[in-house]
Amino acid sequence: MAKHIHEFRDPIHNFIHVTSEERNVIDSLAFQRLRHIHQLGTTYLIYPSATHKRFEHSLGVMELAGRVFDIITDIENVKHDSVRDIIPHQNQKEEWKRIVKMAALLHDIGHLPFSHAAEEQLLPAGYNHEKLTIQLIEKSDLTKTLEDLRLPPKLVAKIAVGPEEYKEDTFDTWEALLSEIIVGNSFGVDRIDYLLRDSHHVGVAYGKFDYYRLLETIRILPKSEGDGTEKSDEPVIGIEEGGINVAESLLLARYFMFSQVYFHPIRRAYDTHLKDFLLNWLPNSKFSTEPEKHIKMTDNEVNSALQSCYYDSKNTAHNEAKRIIERDHFKLFYSGKDFDLQKNPKATDLIFEKSKEKFGAEKIRRDSYPPQKAADVFPVYLREGRIIPSIKRSAILSQIPIASFDYLFIEPSQIKKAENWLKAELNNILKFS
Predict the structure, then answer these.
(1) From residue 168, how far is each of 108, 155, 291 by CA, in Å?
(2) Residue among 250, 212, 222, 259 nearest 397 (CA)
(3) C-alpha pair distances (Å), 3 with each of 19, 23, 32
(4) Core-most of 199, 315, 425, 426, by most CB within 10 Å?
(5) Residue 292, CA distances (Å) to 35, 153, 157, 348 in order
(6) What are the contacts of 128-133 at 24+ separation with CB within 8 A?
(7) Residue 91: its pLDDT value, please?
(8) For 236-273, b where at least 16 C-beta lie within 10 A, e where not — what string?
(9) DSSP assignment, residue 4?
């Protein structure tokens, strides 16, 4: 007898269960491509075991989305009357669960080779991996597969990327909640899976937290209920008071993973070399946005091109290929320091410009990630029945720093000169306005 439920072994979730229709989508070319897209880009050049792919991450996100859906739609977990009417009737729940799981499964299919490395510079204006995800779901061979399974592609795409990225239509309250399950800034299962999975494969403990406890305490709650804030019955994903400590652990894990792994300066140096390589190697310095061409482009094609250009000294991309293959990456000689920025808010800008004058622009690279918005303030359901904002229940949450960086790199042969020059000239540079 044919099986209707299939299992994947997984180091994070033990087993991931999929239905036959979900397996049909998993077997599609668009999804199988993710077997060949590194989850952490060039990070494996620093952390050798960080070779996991977007494929298994996407399976994990689907598994978690299904679990969270079951928990927040369980009538026993509805803690406020304003939420009760939002929960679909029992005969509708399974259809919505199919949609949210499929959206979670497909949320990353638009990623470029090596994931986030220089996405903005390598796509035409107005494009990012979310827009490519929407196109693949709505306008490719995958579209018919979804339609044959009676899954509306447009709705799957909306929930997969969320209101900030899906501009072609508005979201009703329920659709917004379902997309928050996946891409929410506080408890999105995309974040939960990548922190746990990346931490496991990199070999660090920073990203680990008690996610079993977290899932069991996630609830749909009104955004706020007075207590010094503007009252709002808008439903969002919140948490019961018993889960506040693990919520703190999640957001601390995110900060530590960004500061110690995702923003590792050597990883960022390699990303810079990879970006420069691709700008020289790609036609018109851009990846194609056509679904058929996108599906054919993976890390494998880029790695093959790196090897080819490395052995062809006349190729315009040779030098950057050589940097990566011979591990001769540019060296970090300055990162934005708070105490320097307090003296002069333009400190890094000035050092960047002066170092180019001193050593030549071709020998200097800058890579930066400005502070993004802090984690959302989410509602917390107290044991006595009140609902308050998270920052009123936890002193820790408001104190978690916002991860960012601003790195200056230099050609390896110049690193000692640059360090000595900066030590001698820094105070003079900071005097400029």
Answers:
(1) 19, 11, 19
(2) 250
(3) 9, 11, 21
(4) 199
(5) 17, 17, 18, 42
(6) 128/165, 130/161, 130/165, 130/166, 131/165, 131/289, 132/289, 132/291, 132/294, 133/106, 133/107, 133/108, 133/109, 133/157, 133/160, 133/161
(7) 84
(8) bbbbbbebbebbbbbbbbbebbbeebbbbbbbbbbbbb
(9) S
Question: What does the domain layout of the chain look like in residue ranges?
Answer: 5-264+375-397
Does the domain made of 5-264+375-397 have the CATH classification 3.40.50.1260? no
Q: Cβ-count burial of 364 within 10 angstroms (0-12 exposed, 13-18 middle, 19+ buried)? A: buried
> Following CA atoms 114, 115, 118, 124 in sequence, which dihedral angle do they give, to the nearest 10 degrees?
110
Tokens representing 274 are: 């990879």
pTM as predicted: 0.94
**Residue 124 CB neighbours (<10 A):** 11
Q: How many Cα neighbours within 13 Å face the side chain of 123?
A: 21
Region 236-258: mean pLDDT is 95
> What are 117's two structure tokens?
């490395």
Name the nearest CA neighbour of 104 among 131, 83, 127, 133: 133
- CA distances for 379 relative to 164, 215, 230, 285, angstroms: 21, 15, 13, 45
Strand 379-381 versus strand 232-240 pairing type: parallel
In what helix (H) or strand (E) does residue 31 lie, and over which residues does it extend?
helix 29-32
CB atoms within 10 A of CB 369: 14
β-bridge pairing 387-389 and 379-381: antiparallel
Contact in structure between 272 and 330 (CB atoms under 8 Å): yes
Q: Which of 50-59, 88-97, 272-281, 295-304 bottoms out in mean pLDDT, i.e. has the lowest? A: 88-97
Furthest-apart CA atoms within the chain: distance in Å: 78
Contact between 322 and 308 (Cβ < 8 Å): no
Which residues, in sequence order, are bridge partners of residue 17? 7
Instruction: Report the 10 Å Cβ neighbour count for 221.
Output: 26
Indicate the DSSP class of residue 259.
I
Please report, rounded to a whole number, the percentage of residues in the chain having pLDDT higher than 90. 83
Q: Which of 250, 256, 262, 255 has the alpha carbon at shortest distance from 402?
A: 255
Secondary structure (DSSP) of 145-213? HHHHTT--HHHHHHHHH-TTT--SS---HHHHHHHHHHH-TTT-HHHHHHHHHHHHHHT-STT---HHH
Closest to 204 (Cα-Cα) out of 261, 255, 245: 261
Residues 112/129, Cβ–Cβ less than 8 Å: yes
The secondary structure of the chain in percent helix, strand, coil, rounded to multiples of 5, reads 55, 10, 30
